[in-house]
Every structure is written in C-alpha cells, then in structure tokens.
C-alpha cells in the first residue's frame, strides 16, 4: 500500500507539472513592421522670402583719445563705405562704437555711443537713410589689444552688415 501511495503521489505530481506547463501562456512577440522612410518635404521658397546676401567691404574708422568727432582721414573711409551702401540699397548695417579701457565703464559706454552716432550722422549726411543703420556701443568690452601703447586701435567704429 505504501508503494501504491507513493506511486499515486508521483503520478499526481507529474500530472500537476504537465497541466501547469501545458497551461502556461506562450508569449508570442509580434514583430512591428518597419515603416518606410518618409519623404523629405521641401518647402518652396519664393524669391521675396530669400534673405538678401550682401557682400560689403566696409572699413573701420578710428578716433582720437576721448573724442567722437570724425577725423579728416576717416571721413574718406566713411565716404567709401557710403558709396558701397549706395550700390546696395537693400543693405542694412550696424555701427559699433568701441573705446580703449582708460576711464570708467559708464564713461566708455557713453563715448562708444557718441562715436557710433557720429558715424551714423556722417553717413546720413552722405545720403544713407537712417532706417538702414543701427548703432550700438560696446565701450571697452571688445578690446583689440591690451597693450597700452596700441590703445589707439581700440578707439574705433566698426561697420557690420546685418
């Protein structure tokens, strides 16, 4: 009888394992289809939307220490810049006023503004519309040199196309 009980226990255990294994859910991985590459949609740009690329060779002008008046030698440079701007009537420029590091930051910012506005006024007298020009002062923020003997190259206005 002990044999029969053991055999019955083994058979029940085997039946349980078979039922458990047979009833287990099989996980079937569903492969996702790979989507085809999307075609690039190119927007048409009309000529009116295309930004105007202007190539100008505008020259920098320089100032005397603590001054914002245009020097005679630099007036010729501004006249050359004005001629280029007249040839490109759609060109807009930014006039940047710069200073050497002598003086306070506040004073140099104000001097940079006076220099930029002086250059803008001169260009306006030469026929360049003020709405084509913007001004900014960097004061002593963008030095070209830190050598005191060369500070004259920091006293300048640069003309940048926008």
Question: Would you mind describing this structure in some detail?
Answer:
With 162 residues, the chain is an alpha+beta fold. The chain has a domain at 62-161: 60s Ribosomal Protein L30, Chain: A, CATH 3.30.1330. The protein is built from 3 helices and 4 strands, in the order H-E-H-E-H-E-E. The protein has a 4-stranded mixed beta sheet with strand order 1-4-2-3. Strand 2 (93-98), helix 3 and strand 3 form a beta-alpha-beta unit. The radius of gyration is 39 Å and the shape is elongated.
Secondary structure layout:
Elements: H1 2-23, E1 61-62, H2 72-87, E2 93-98, H3 105-125, E3 133-139, E4 156-161
Parallel strand pairs: 2-3
Antiparallel strand pairs: 1-4, 2-4
Write the element-wise H/E pattern from the N-terminal end onward. HEHEHEE
Approximate helicity band: 25-40%
CATH superfamily of the domain at 62-161: OmpA-like domain
- Strand coverage percent: 5-15%
Alpha carbon gyration radius = 39 Å
Give the class-level CATH name of the domain at 62-161.
Alpha Beta
What is the arithmetic mean of pLDDT? 83
Question: What distance separates the N and C termini?
Answer: 104 Å
Strand order of the largest sheet: 1-4-2-3
Indicate the structural class.
Answer: alpha+beta
As for the CATH topology of the domain at 62-161, it is 60s Ribosomal Protein L30, Chain: A
Number of helices: 3
Low-confidence spans: none
Strands, total number: 4
The profile of the biggest β sheet is: 4 strands, mixed
Outline type: elongated
CATH architecture of the domain at 62-161: 2-Layer Sandwich
């Amino acid at each position: 009888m002990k044999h029969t009980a053991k055999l019955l226990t083994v058979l029940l255990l085997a039946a349980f394992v078979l039922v458990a294994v047979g009833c287990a859910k099989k996980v079937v991985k569903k492969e996702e289809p790979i989507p085809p590459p999307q075609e690039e949609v190119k927007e048409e740009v009309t000529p009116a939307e295309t930004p105007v690329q202007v190539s100008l060779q505008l020259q920098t002008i320089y100032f005397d220490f603590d001054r914002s008046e245009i020097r005679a030698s630099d007036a010729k440079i501004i006249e050359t810049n004005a001629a280029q701007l007249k040839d490109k009537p759609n060109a807009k420029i930014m006039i940047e006023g710069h200073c050497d590091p002598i003086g306070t930051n506040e004073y140099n910012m104000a001097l940079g503004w006076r220099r930029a506005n002086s250059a803008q006024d001169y260009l306006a007298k030469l026929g360049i519309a003020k709405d084509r020009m913007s001004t900014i002062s960097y004061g002593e923020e963008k030095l070209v040199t830190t050598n005191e003997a060369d500070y004259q190259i920091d006293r300048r206005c640069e003309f940048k196309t926008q």
